[in-house]
Amino acid sequence: MQMQVIKNANVINEQGQLELKHIVIAGGLIEAVVSELADLPQDSRAQIIDAEGKLVTPGFIDMHVHLREPGYEHKETIETGSRSAVKGGFTTIACMPNTRPVTDTPETVKLILDKAREANLAKVLPYAAITKNELGRELTDFEALKEAGAIGFTDDGVGVQNAQMMKDAMRKAKVLGMPVIAHCEDDSLVKGACVTEGKFAERHGLKGIPNESEAIHVGRDILLTEATGVHYHVCHVSTEQSVRLIRQAKAIGISVTAEVCPHHLVLSDEDIPGLDANWKMNPPLRSPRDVEACIEGLLDGTLDMIVTDHAPHSAEEKAKGMELAPFGIVGFETAFPLLYTKFVATGKWDLSLLVRRMTSDPARVFGLDSGVLKAGAAADLTMIDLNAEKEVNPDTFATKGRNTPFTGWKLKGWPVMTWVDGEVKWSEQGGF
């Protein structure tokens, strides 16, 4: 593999400040990060890439995505999802098991890994289901799924309703040294509901999803985590009550971590313009109070990381309207620009905090050998133009999904080049 030198790159140093550096890539690894051009290896065959002062970060890591394959290839495939990921600056993505068939057998896990290798874009880490067919009735074969390459267990898309089933799952996962990742939702409180309980639901005569539907499972599972000692990770936190419970659990040393999505940091139910299902996701957009609680939780570390919950659907499915359309929005290609524009460019957050929550923090929580920019690390990198402003246009997305509430938003901070193991997988100039 040809040596590459990325010169004149702005990187975030250990003090959280921007510093101009030159990065040497060789053999798929970062060989050196130096301050002076004179310190670079003298290799006439090296490919020189001039970053021209653009930001270079570790590749983004997204621990909650939906690639839809197998079974829903009309929505997305592992290849199209991976294309969208690298275009958005993501180099490692973890895909959820609510496919058809459900990812509940070693064969399906291996299929996903094989498809990811064929795509040869982002690194794809598959989760396996906690229960067979995600029906909540019988545990899957955790040992065989781990052996096949699953990185954790979750019934994402539905909550595990039976507490004994969840406790048994946690015990098995603990023995295997594996995390349990939970979609927290009490079904008895949400049947027939499509948006959060609140003014928007009342105004449109819709049944609302109450905050406690999420928080009840968070509280239950924290107690089960305390009893079993497993690493428990809460999916897509959206409510003030959930943030409060997770903060309290962490304070007394319970092994809980958590994630939050860009849309739950940027939008509330008060922003929904009408009955457009591109604003329908699960968890739903909550109240401004919940948004502020999630922001505070991310800033103080209660919420460990940012994930997209990238959830593509076809235009025909989303055209069914707020009540009948499936939940979910796409997220890979807007995540960083959205949060950079909303919080960093306005001076509310430090750039280093946003980058950590999308790189080193998810790597730390899930024990991944990535998320850092230093000699010896995998050359998974993202170059970002912090100044160029573009309008969100779903017609330009690499994902099959066009379901986003951010159409027309003008954002800054767009990725322009992505490396995985030292190979450029996408660039603004050269494409894929």
Automatic annotation (TrEMBL):
Superkingdom of origin organism: Bacteria
UniProt pathway: Pyrimidine metabolism; UMP biosynthesis via de novo pathway; (S)-dihydroorotate from bicarbonate: step 3/3
Residues that bind substrate: 66-68, 98, 282, 313, 327-328
Keyword field contains Zinc: yes
Enzyme class per UniProt: hydrolase
NCBIfam families reported in the protein's UniProt record: PRK09357.1-2, pyrC_multi
Function per UniProt: Catalyzes the reversible cyclization of carbamoyl aspartate to dihydroorotate.
Entry-linked PANTHER family: ALLANTOINASE (PTHR43668)
The family this protein is said to belong to: Belongs to the metallo-dependent hydrolases superfamily. DHOase family. Class I DHOase subfamily.
The protein's name in its UniProt record: Dihydroorotase
Organism: Paenibacillus lactis 154
Gene: pyrC
